[in-house]
Amino acid sequence: MPTTMRGVGQRIATIRRARRMTQADLARAAYVSLATIKGIERGARSPSDDTFDSIAAALAVDPSHIIVGSTRTDSRVHAALPAISAAIAAYDVPTDDAARPLDELGQDVGRLVQWRLAAQYARIAEQAPHLLTEVLTAFHHSTGTDRLRAARLLATTTRSADAVAFKFGARDLSARLVELMRWAADRTEDPITQATAAYVRTETFFAARAHTAGLCALEQALDACPSPVDPATTAARGALHMRAAVIAGRYGNTGQVALHLAQARRLGNSVREGAYDGTQFGPDSVRAHEVSVAVSLGHDHLQRALNIADEWPPPDSLPQERQSGFWIELARAQVWAGRPDDAFESLKAARFIAPQHTREHPWARESAATIRRLKRADAESLTSFAQWIGAV
After folding, report:
1. How many CA atoms lie within 13 A of 186 on its CB side?
2. In this structure, is residue 77 part of a structural domain?
3. CA separation for the pair 102, 134 (Å, rounded)
4. How far is Cα 166 from Cα 208, in angstroms, rounded to an integer?
5. What is the span of the domain harbouring residue 181?
6. Is the same domain home to 55 and 114?
7. Strand ranges in the chain using DSSP code E only, listed in sequence order
């Protein structure tokens, strides 16, 4: 973590150069003066919170990318959780508030989806409470096709809010958001949205370690999912198979793992990698999940995870959340395989790609703590990393 404004300024300059932006480009994109950017990068000026957020937005990164190790993003997220809870407390009670146009709401909801895929949780946390309220208002004041559209927006908004609650350990709030997502999905009359809700619901089974029940729920969702006749329906079914393989791996059901992975590969190879209804799916996503499955199955399957990593690094085109998840899973396999140096490199890669996702991931924290125990006399950077992630 940079401990001085000079360190913060240097990191801003590094990210700016990586984006091939000049200082003048960054000043224009952040709506601040060129003198401000120059002063911050020299360490001579300390940006206000608003200026700092504007710079982070212009660089297309979460603020934690710039101040790695700070609790700034954590505190902003946790401060927003009660407001998210309040926004959905009376989800089924209409209000007299005026509803915003659905086109405007759709643009804001779309930004939330992009932030979720990029693991920019602080942005989601700050926008989700009022957006949830507005989308609920639109739903209750709409009729006909507009009501169906509002229900889809509600399901999508709720999913983004749930990503924050789940990642930051607010399990009860996460479960409520998932149920609201399912409630909204049932009102869309859209089987793909309903399949997406079933995919997300798996989080509650992971949290409760109810893996058998989770697999049953996914198989029921697969029965209800449309046949794969186009990219959208293919991705919906493929994502459910991908998720089913992971949850089957959690309780060692190798037969179900093989069945669902085979289906996920087949469907993944028939569509282009991309985000379908907010869920990333395609051949690269399936490959990343194969690592997750191998790690879930335990020590006897580690070599599979290591082989995949040797043959296939995740491309930059994958969303940051999925890329960092790959490196976190790989680090766990490398720790178990007695390769702590490689595991540390994987964790550093995960942090660089999506710092908040990495910091809040229990497996990343567990791996960092194990590596530090194994290599106590090693570089100070390992201790610094362990402190950053909360492993010491």
Report:
1. 6
2. yes
3. 10
4. 12
5. 70-189
6. no
7. 274-276, 279-281
Are 10 and 33 found together in one domain? yes
Q: CA-CA distance, 101 to 315, in Å (whole number)?
A: 37
The full length of the chain comes to: 392
Q: Are residues 74 and 49 in the same domain?
A: no
Task: Specify the pTM.
Answer: 0.80
Give the span between the Cα atoms of 271 and 230, in whole angstroms.
9
- pLDDT tens, position by position, 75-84: 778 889 999 9
49 CB burial (10 A radius; 0-12, 13-18, 19+)? exposed
Q: Cα(4)–Cα(144) distance, rounded to whole angstroms?
A: 56
Q: Give the amino acid at 119.
A: A
Quick one: CA dihedral 245, 249, 254, 255, positive or negative? negative
**Inside any domain, residue 296:** no
> How far does the chain reach from its first CA to its final CA, in angstroms?
16
How many distinct structural domains can be found in the chain?
2
pLDDT over 70 at 306, yes or no: yes
The partner residues of 274 in beta bridges, in order of sequence, read: 281
Question: Whole-angstrom Cα distance, residue 160 to residue 319?
Answer: 14
For the segment 113-144, what is each residue's pLDDT rounded down to a tens digit? 999 999 989 889 999 999 999 999 999 999 99
Q: Which two tokens stand for residue 52?
A: 């700092």
Residue 303 domain-assigned (yes or no): no
